[in-house]
Amino acid sequence: MRLPELDIGELRQRWRGLYKAVAPPHLSRELLVRAVAYRMQELALGSLRPEPQRRLRQIAQDLKETGTARIRARREVKSGTRLMRQWHGCIYEVLVLDDGFSWQGTRYRSLSAIARTITGTAWSGPLFFGLKPGRSSQVPSPAGAPMEDSDAEG
Asked: Could you tell me if 88 and 138 lie in one domain?
């Protein structure tokens, strides 16, 4: 909390201690405060997971090469979340895990595998469970049976 009160010399000293290198001379005071605070948080709580790091590197590379970067919003579902879907009069509940999903005591790598098992058709799991915004959650029924849809609950 004291970082904004430090002068630029003190911030550069903190940088040197945290990054084990001299702070780049062109960094503004505001950027030094943010970078030092981030590094302190990273050391205390851990760094970003590999996937966000990869996405950030790709964004930086795109920006460097083209001057623009395409940033796509990804809707992440946290581990422990329960997804529920009613289909053909039955309620299906899936538990989100760190490395996949659990349904009826079995682990699955994707929601689509679960949706295929439930519906008997190749279908997007995120669409079936209502995780894709702005699209219908109607799922085709096998063998021409009438379709039934309902919103996912989470």
From this structure: yes
Q: Answer yes or no: are the C-beta atoms of 108 and 127 closer than 8 Å.
A: no
Enclosing H/E stretch for 102: strand 100-103
Q: Edge to edge, what strands does the sheet with 82-87 contain? A: 82-87, 90-97, 100-103, 106-108
Report d(CA 65, CA 59) in Å as an integer: 10
CA atoms lying within 13 Å on the CB side of residue 81: 16
Q: How far out from the chain centre does Cα 122 lie? A: 25
What does each of the 154 residues of the chain score in pLDDT, given as a tens digit? Answer: 899 999 999 999 999 999 999 999 999 999 999 999 999 999 999 888 887 888 889 888 988 899 887 776 556 788 899 999 999 999 999 999 988 899 999 999 999 999 999 999 988 888 888 887 544 444 444 443 333 444 443 3
In a domain, 71, yes or no: no
Residue positions counted in the chain:
154
Q: Identity (one letter) of the amino acid at 48?
A: L
Specify if 68 maps to a domain: no
Do residues 138 and 95 share a domain? yes
Which residues, in sequence order, are CB contacts of 79 under 8 Å at separation 6+? 96, 97, 98
